[in-house]
Structure formats: C-alpha cells, structure tokens
Amino acid sequence: MEARAVTKFVVISPRKAKLTADLIKGKPVNEALAILKFTPKRAATLITKTLNSAVANAIDKEGSGKLDPDDLYVKDAVIDPGPIMDRWKPRAFGRASRIRKRMSHIKVTVTTEMPKEFKKTRKARRLVSKPKKGKK
After folding, report:
1. At the N or C end, where does the chain have fewer CB atoms within 10 A?
2. Is 96 part of any domain?
C-alpha cells in the first residue's frame, strides 16, 4: 500500500533540497524523521512536513487504527523544479542585476513494503532475519 504527499511552490532551490531528500530515500519513516530532525538545513523542515503528511495520508487510506506508522518506509523523495521568480537589484552606475528565486515541488511516497535499496543494508537484513530452522 502506497501513499503520497506533495508540497508545491516552496521557495528553496531544488539543488539544495535534493541533498536533504537523498538522505531519507529507502529508510523507515521513524529513522527518516530522526535524520531530518538533526539535519541543519532549511529543506529538512519542509521535507519533514511533507513526510508527516504522507504518513497521515497512508493511515487515513488504510483506515483508522489499522496501520502503524513504524511499519512504513520512504519509497521515494523527489524534488522537482518549480517556477522561477525574477527580482531586480539596483547596482552601480544605474544598472540592475537579476536575482532568480527558485521554487521546488516536494513529493514524498511512503509504502508498507521494504524498498530494494534498504533490503541490501546490514540493518535491514537484521530486521527481517528469520530464525534458523534447527535452533529454538
């Protein structure tokens, strides 16, 4: 089961926001929130809000009380470029310089299945390891 949340027209450069979004791809939601909490970038708070919204969408889609947020994984976190606002700044000798204020669209998808990227990690193997057949 998948759920998605989109935040549009956020005034932050997509290049800066992608650095933060790449930190949480394929991680469990609780671990992704912890990473974003201690990331000292402005994009971290914007992505946190979108991630919380995606989790709420997943819980609402499944039905109240049936889905635990700890069972969700971040399937994808995509930062797309939005429109660019042009502003002008006065310069010397009567000239003007253009300042481009870039916008982004943030899309976060959460799922109940463990993503392939996370399955390869050591921590994931420990989480889903099955007990050996001969020992109890």
Report:
1. C
2. yes
